[in-house]
Amino acid sequence: MEMRCYRRLLGISYKDHTTNEEVSRRIENAIGPHIDLLTIVRQRKLKWYGHTTRSSGLVKTIMQGLTYQELQDFLLVKCLFALLRSELVSDKIDQFLVYFSSFLNN
């Protein structure tokens, strides 16, 4: 993709049979030394990753994943709300809360 842009800037057609090395050399002569597009993208991705991991939010949680304890807590809470939505009697809900509160405290 990058080489195609360079060829268009220099007005070089693919029919001219000019090698990519020659195109790179002509670009360096025209604009001076430059950094590859993929290197720039990689650097910006790393900067963005560092920016997001310094904060505490959803993006950080998604990128770094959940710890085992966080995953356990999340699944227990999800299970609790699913059971609360279902048609359980109140005494069974109390038993459920007592049973799973021991897991949440560990």
TrEMBL record:
Please, which domain of life does this record's source organism belong to? Eukaryota
Please name the GO terms that the record assigns under molecular function: translation initiation factor activity
Entry keywords, A to Z: Initiation factor, Protein biosynthesis
* Keyword Protein biosynthesis included in the entry's annotation: yes
Q: Spell out the protein name for this chain.
A: Eukaryotic translation initiation factor 3 subunit f
- Organism from which the protein derives: Plakobranchus ocellatus
